[in-house]
Specification:
Helices cover about 0% and strands about 50% of the residues. It is an all-beta fold. Strand 5 and strand 6 form a beta hairpin.
Length: about 110
């Protein structure tokens, strides 16, 4: 049974940091590109960051470049999203995705003073 379980969300003040985790099981994690998406209220889901399975190269949305870092630990079957210098506009539900196949249930990130 495929599972992607996100954790690490919460309430943080502007300028703060959070690290999201996505624990995977039930498929060959090391062979999948992994992605983080987010969806803010009233907006479409958007891609935030991705990391390829071979070589580990990464891509980021312009809105998060220089502030967010995606990484993966294949031994732990986990992908991470380190989020620094958070802004109110980063408030959203954050989802991880494996390849074009599997989605997690999401974790809420709220940036507010």
């Amino acid at each position: 049974q495929v599972q992607l379980v996100e954790s690490g969300g919460g309430l943080v003040q502007p300028g703060g940091s959070l690290r999201l985790s996505c624990a995977a099981s039930g498929f060959s994690f090391s062979l999948y590109d992994m992605h983080w998406y987010r969806q803010a209220p009233g907006k479409e889901r958007e891609a935030v960051a991705s990391i390829v399975w071979r070589g580990g190269s990464t891509n980021y949305a312009d809105s998060v470049k220089g502030r967010f870092t995606i990484s993966r630990d294949n031994a732990k079957q986990t992908v991470y999203l380190q989020m620094n210098s958070l802004k109110p506009d980063d408030t959203a539900v954050y989802y991880c995705k494996a390849g074009n196949m599997y989605w997690g249930q999401g974790t809420q990130v709220t940036v507010s003073s």
